[in-house]
Design a protein that fits this description.
This is DAK2 domain-containing protein. There is one protein chain. This protein has helices at 3-27, 37-56, 64-78, 81-99, 108-125, 134-149, 156-177, 179-184, 189-206, 259-267, 291-301, 312-327, 342-350, 366-375, 391-405, 417-425, 433-446, 486-498, 517-529, and strands at 216-217, 220-221, 246-253, 270-278, 281-288, 303-311, 333-339, 354-357, 380-384, 408-411, 448-454, 459-461, 464-466, 471-475, 478-483, 504-509, 534-539, 547-551. By secondary structure, it is an alpha+beta fold. The longest helix is centred in the N-terminal third of the chain and has 25 residues, at 3-27. Mean pLDDT is 86; it is low at 213-241.
């Protein structure tokens, strides 16, 4: 299996889960009927896809080992919900097995081994395995793959074709294994999501798109949607009779030796326990009544972060509110902007934009952007991510918003905060949507941008090696200047930006230039060397970058 196939697979899997997301959400009755399994699996695979795309730049000639490592980490960090965490562990197991093999060894037998390891990893991750779930579907796929390798001349494509077919058959059997599914007349939502992913793998290897088989109980077809609300459950329904009321998730930095005790502690607090990861980073998921005890268990084991707590009753209420919001008439146009600092937030807000907090080290999630897009109440939305690594999350959020609510969304791929400022300055709600987007896009693209920062570690840059504490100049997203003084590097960056011509320089001072000394130095330098160029200075308050610069 080549990197080209991996890149094709992740794209097909994300698209397929996106198309099946609402159907899978509606099937979600076990372990808690909170109607988000499809969304969680979609966001999990999207995060893995974004990570591998970022690591490779979409180049099929990139290193496969590095791509698989990025894929694994992206899946772990982006895993959402019970089924999303289990799916991430399965994908990571497959990636690890492929990474340990040479190109010549990536044959049918190795892929079958990878699927078996994925199934075993899924069972091992769950505190109390239950048949009739994603686990049963995973095991059936692994068993079918192993049988395929016993046939003479078995090919890799045969492994996934047979595994996907076995998964569909196992999915149809889930209502007979789990009473909650039989009572609701549906198949398992997590198993359906896994079946979609395996179908995507088959498509990537064969070009065929398998038709999903409509499962049946006896003579009666099992519906893939339910006749209630979009979540599959009436607003205000009691989701957890006799069960825990909260879902707790967090990432945990700890040694592997601490995990068994953590599992034991969490198992005594609730159910739906899943802990996955390796080395120092773990993803923890559990349903509990005592949220504080679940978090304290993590603190005792290591350092929990990115803590998410969901109250199931509130979740259903929120889903109902979102459905009402989707049905509410929308009007007007809104701009959603990612801001990297409090001063920038104020600037964007004064211009009428809806602001999502972000910046290096705290980039917004797809969910954050989706909430801003759907919550602004506009029929037309323009999104300015202002960061290259946030563009893909914005595009996924835009696609999801359009699918869910019909809102028209355009993502302008701004790479820097100053490009967002430039684009927002020419925004005109009175223009037609396409014309407004075109003008904002052109303005952002023509804004040459740079920045200055301080090196945190030893590294090799386009301008040569740097040491911790060196001043670094950024031009168009690349480290182009290395020096000892921030002021000298700032003027060098300015010279490179201005030499191509321009009428206006925008200077945004950061948290590390609280008195504006660097900004003042730059304006004085401009007045001396380029007196016909105007300059405007803002206090952005962004971290890590004492100055952001742009020339228009």
């Amino acid at each position: 299996m080549s990197l080209e196939v991996v890149l094709l697979f992740v794209d097909i899997a994300v698209d397929a889960l996106g198309a099946a997301r609402e159907e899978i959400d509606a099937l979600n009755v076990y372990p808690v009927p909170d109607g988000d399994t499809g969304t969680n699996m979609y966001l999990t695979v999207s995060a893995a896809r974004d990570a591998v795309r970022e690591a490779t730049g979409g180049d099929p000639g990139a290193d496969l080992g590095e791509a698989l490592a990025a894929f694994s980490r992206g899946a772990l960090l982006g895993a959402r919900g019970n089924s999303g965490v289990i799916l991430s562990e399965m994908m990571r197991a497959i990636a690890r097995r492929l990474a340990r093999s040479t190109p010549e060894e990536r044959n049918a037998e190795v892929l079958a081994q990878a699927l078996r390891l994925a199934s075993d990893a899924a069972y091992a991750a769950v505190g109390t395995p239950v048949e009739g779930t994603i686990l049963s579907v995973a095991r059936a796929a692994a068993e079918a793959a192993e049988v395929t390798t016993e046939e003479p001349g078995a090919r890799t494509r045969d492994v996934f074709t047979d595994a996907a077919e076995a998964a569909r058959a196992a999915l149809a059997r889930t209502p007979g294994q789990l009473q909650a599914l039989a009572d609701a007349g549906v198949v398992d939502a997590g198993g359906r999501g896994l079946s979609v992913v395996l179908d995507a793998a088959e498509t990537a290897l064969t070009g065929r798109r398998p038709e999903p088989v409509l499962p049946r109980i006896g003579r009666h077809a099992i519906p893939v949607t339910t006749p209630t609300t979009g979540s599959g459950h009436p607003p205000g329904a009691d989701l957890t009779p006799g069960g825990p009321s909260y879902e707790v998730m967090y990432l945990l930095d700890t040694d592997a030796e601490q995990v068994p005790a953590l599992r034991e502690r969490l198992a005594g607090l609730g159910d739906s326990l899943v802990v996955v990861g390796d080395e120092r980073l773990w993803n923890v998921h559990v349903h509990v009544d005592d949220v504080g005890a679940a978090i304290e268990a993590g603190i005792e084991a290591g350092r929990p972060h990115r803590i998410r707590v969901t109250h199931f009753h509130d979740q259903v209420t929120q889903q109902a509110a979102q459905e009402r919001e989707a049905a509410r008439p929308r009007e007007g146009r809104c701009v959603v902007v990612v801001s990297a600092g409090p001063g920038l937030t104020a600037l964007f807000g004064e211009a009428g934009a809806v602001v999502v907090e972000g910046g290096p080290g705290r980039r917004p999630s797809t969910g954050d952007l989706l909430g801003a897009i759907t919550g602004c109440g506009a029929q037309e939305v323009v999104v300015l991510p202002n960061d290259g690594d946030s563009v893909r999350a914005a595009q996924v959020a835009a696609s999801t918003a359009t699918q869910d609510t019909g809102v028209r969304v355009a993502v302008i791929p701004t790479q820097a905060q100053v490009q967002g400022l430039a684009a927002l300055a020419v925004h005109e709600p009175g223009r037609g949507f396409d014309a407004d987007v075109l003008e904002m896009t052109a303005t952002a693209r023509h804004a040459r941008h740079g920045a200055v920062t301080v090196a945190a570690r030893q590294a090799m840059t386009m301008a040569g090696p740097c040491e911790p504490g060196d001043a670094l100049g950024v031009v168009a997203g690349d480290f182009a200047v290395v020096g000892s003084a921030l002021a000298d590097v700032a003027t060098e960056v300015l010279e490179r930006l201005v030499v191509g011509g321009g009428e206006l320089v925008t200077i945004v001072s950061g948290a590390d230039d609280p008195e504006g000394a660097l900004a003042e130095h730059c304006t004085a330098w401009l007045a001396e060397h380029h007196p016909y160029v105007d300059a405007v200075v803002y206090d952005g308050g962004q971290e890590r970058y004492p100055l952001l610069l742009a020339v228009e």
